[in-house]
Recover the amino acids of this structure.
């Protein structure tokens, strides 16, 4: 009985510490938002469509650490990360960066936080635009052999600029290796 009670206390303390770490990230981002105001040529970049997603890297700047899922202090100092006000219960981070060409790494978690789908893109982001990276599974009605029908549907990421899809990347399933890369599709 005492051991069970001790485990509950330990679990309770760890959960409080974990939520405190997440709250400290939110408060650090809020402070940076107050400190830095947006220049005239900013770009807003969002990600959606999976259980969760996070921005891993912008060029050589780490935004959110892959292992700890904590916001990097260099990204906060530059004022790149902002909190969205779309849903007060589920506030998510988005990027607000100067217009330029960037290599952006986004980690999508389509099923759970244990497995990330890492997506890399190089794009020239234009000023005064909102971009959204939306992940989805491309469902299709396949006819044919059981092997063809049983393969998983490809994962796709659409890049939207102000509600219009401007680029599409899909990763088909490779039955031999189980691995494949995202390939840009024609729209």
């Amino acid at each position: 009985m005492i051991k069970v009670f001790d485990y509950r206390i330990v679990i309770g303390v760890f959960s409080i510490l974990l939520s405190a770490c997440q709250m400290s990230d939110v408060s650090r981002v809020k402070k940076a938002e107050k400190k830095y105001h947006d220049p005239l040529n900013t770009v807003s970049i969002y990600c959606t469509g999976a259980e969760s997603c996070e921005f891993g890297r912008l060029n050589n700047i780490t935004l959110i650490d892959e292992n700890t899922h904590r916001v990097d202090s260099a990204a906060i100092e530059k004022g790149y990360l902002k909190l969205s006000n779309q849903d007060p219960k589920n506030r998510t981070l988005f990027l607000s960066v100067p217009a330029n060409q960037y290599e952006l790494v986004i980690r999508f978690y389509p099923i759970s936080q244990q497995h990330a789908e890492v997506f890399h893109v190089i794009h020239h982001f234009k000023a005064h635009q909102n971009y959204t990276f939306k992940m989805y599974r491309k469902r299709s009605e396949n006819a044919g052999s059981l092997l063809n029908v049983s393969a998983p549907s490809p994962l796709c990421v659409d890049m939207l600029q102000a509600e219009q899809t401007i680029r599409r990347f899909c990763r088909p399933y490779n039955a031999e290796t189980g691995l494949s890369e995202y390939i840009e599709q024609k729209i």
Summary: Helices lie at 2-35, 73-78, 146-150. The CA atoms of residues 51 and 112 lie 7 Å apart. Confidence is low (pLDDT under 50) at residues 10-23, 32-37.
